Give the backbone structure.
Amino acid sequence: MKYRRLGKTELDVSVIGIGTWQFGGEWGQQFTQNDVDSILDKGQELGINLIDTAECYGDHLSESLIGDYISRRKREDWIIATKFGHHFHERFTRTDVFDAQDVLKQLDASLKALRTEYIDLYQFHSGRDEAFDNDDLWTLLDKQIQAGKIRFLGTSIGSNDNLHQTENSTRVNSSVIQVVYNRLDRVPENRVFPSCEQQDLGVLARVPLASGYLSGKYKPGATFESTDVRHRHDAQSTMRKLEEVQMIRKNEVSEGVDMAQWALAWCLRHPVVSAVIPGCKNPAQVEANARAANLLD
């Protein structure tokens, strides 16, 4: 495994992290505690130290599964990133709630679910600019840093071209930008990444495999079950993406190189990107993702 400094936080994160949206049940699979233990144990064995989750991956469900695991391991071995700003209702249904006092309740609920006294990275989660520009919110969060509940703040931008929230990160004491970035979606390179570099912000690239389209598993015409989040994607857009993936595989990926590992390494070759946070359904996928670090040599 390789490690990079997460911007001005000075945290050294593994270049491959573990994204955990799937633990909330919206990837068409229900995860048991044993499933999660196996995934995270494999990650630790391979040198991964970064877990990314959120309050709305289930109703703190993903956090609870991680928390149960962490309670039986060394807390200091992991850098835990979670998020705030939503109330989960049911699969794919959540509402935005960025009121400062409600966010304090969300924070306490996340700490309880994660069974930890502190969160390493607490991220504003895909909110509108009006919610971001609430000084009361950031004042409250700074007080939680002083109280020891949070180590660092970050912003998970909903639009990968949200320059407003990126440019104002330093002003609100946000040290990290999380953004959709992959070989099929390079928009952050134009405006977001230059701002991150100027401010020395850490960058977490989410959806680095483009919802699995860059895994190399799917051909044009592939369909997904109703329980799979990709079932909600526009069919024509999915077809175009899979056709583009075929061309990328043919023209850019060396023979014998795993497509998914290539795609993760491709993200990490951008000097601004600190880490990628792909999801995974089992320990074998964790191991395959971790091998992408070898392609950086």
Summary: The longest strand covers residues 119-125. The CA atoms of residues 63 and 114 lie 5 Å apart. The chain has a mean pLDDT of 92.
